[in-house]
Amino acid sequence: MKKIIPYSFVIVVFLAILFPIVRFNKNGTVSEVENRSLATKPNHILNFSEYDNYFQDRFGGRNRLVTIANFIDYDIFNKQIRNNLAFKGKNNWFYYISSNDGNNLNDFYKKNLLTELELESFKNSVKKTAKWCEDNNIKYLFAIGPNKHSVYPENYIDERPEGTTRADQLISVFNELGITCVYPRDYLIEQKEKNNSPLYYETDTHWNNLGAYYAFTQIENEVKKLFPNIQFPKVDYDFEVSYSENAGDILPMLGIKKSKSTQIVAKPKNSEFSDYFEYIKNEGTGGVITKGKNENLPRAIVFRDSFFSALTPYFSTMFSSVEYNWRRMNEEDKKSILENKPDLIVFENVERYAVGIAGM
Fold first, then answer.
1. Phi and psi at residue 249, to the nearest 5°
2. Which residue has the higher pLDDT, 348 or 6?
3. What are 297-307's pLDDT values in tens digits?
4. Which of 4, 66, 172, 325 minimizes the number of CB atoms within 10 Å of its CB?
5. DSSP state of 42
6. DSSP letter at 255?
7. Is the pLDDT of residue 1 over 50?
8. What are phi and psi of 61, to 5 degrees?
9. How many angstroms from the chain centroid is the CA of residue 153?
10. Does residue 225 register a pLDDT over 70?
11. Which pTM does this prediction carry?
12. 179 to each of 130, 134, 138, 355, how far by Cα in Å?
């Protein structure tokens, strides 16, 4: 009996050492748990730091160990959870901070303000885009989706510094040019004080359907100014609130299984969205096209990012057709646009990428 215990211990240790090697993930490209690309194999055998990242990203059982470690810290010891992608803030709110994807952390601390030269470049880009639309008799509208921390800074790990943000700088350019840009940050802050439900997901980067609705009302007001002779449909909405424990794009980045997230579903009162439009194409990043039931309404093209996804059902009720492109407009788009001649083009970007909103 005395000999069995040491042998069993040796076997367990041997298997523990062998498992990460046998289950080594050499073919995967994306971490589904953390929603990011995995480190690639270095080209040079002596590049030790890159090999260290490569092995740490891919050894067998890594995802399970990350989940267990975060469970111990988060659920048992209630420690702060943070990595280079996201962190857990106050009141169980989570924030995205990847430096390789817009660098929200720098934006929160206002370390990304533009120089005069950069502002001038942005101004010229906006003027160029607006002039092309005007020259071709196409109405246009710019929109910026506020970063989550711009509307809910109180749940961040630190207090946000006072003073101008980069988005404020950009809006000042639009104001100087006399060009409308919908940036509903202040309106959303006002509305959050009036609502029991949050306007952004606690466990996700984006606004929820209620926050998107309030942003839409600001866009709707500007669209009506652009088309004063159009009788747009008036749609009232009901909002159903429920809760989830594993929703959102941030929890997987931190290896967290559960945290409460408010889910809100919008539905037109006494009707359905299908009473106003139908999806001709609905492929997300691959493109979305909607066709309205009223042919007398204008036609629109939207160049957007993920923040417009929640806006799409509301926005589509206002138009006879809308083509949604999950990217910025480029020179190659101009020919197709002029052939199909929409009445309106919308240029939208989330705040952390708003500098490129008018890029063509």
1. -90, -10
2. 348
3. 999 999 999 99
4. 4
5. P
6. T
7. no
8. 85, 5
9. 17
10. yes
11. 0.81
12. 8, 12, 14, 15
- CB distance 304 to 284 below 8 Å: no
What would the mean pLDDT of 234-244 be, rounded to a whole number? 97
Whole-Å CA distances, 294 to 150, 164, 206, 277: 37, 43, 31, 8
Distance CA 140, CA 121 (A): 20
Q: Tokens 């646009």 appear where?
A: 337
Indicate the burial class of 76 (C-beta count within 10 angstroms; 0-12, 13-18, 19 or more): exposed
With CA atoms as reference, report the closest residue to 324 among 291, 295, 290.
290
Q: Is residue 45 predicted with pLDDT exceeding 80?
A: no
Query: Per residue in 157-215, pLDDT tens?
Result: 999 999 999 999 999 999 999 999 999 999 999 999 999 999 999 999 999 999 999 99
Of residues 73 and 27, the one with the higher pLDDT is: 27
Can you list the pairs that 219-227 forms with residues at least 24 positions away whose Cβ atoms lie under 8 Å? 219/141, 219/143, 219/182, 219/311, 219/315, 219/346, 220/314, 220/318, 222/141, 222/180, 222/182, 223/141, 223/318, 223/344, 225/180, 226/139, 226/141, 226/344, 227/139, 227/298, 227/343, 227/344
Mapping DSSP to helix (H, G, I), strand (E, B) and coil, where does residue 67 land?
A: helix
CB 325 within 8 A of CB 302: yes
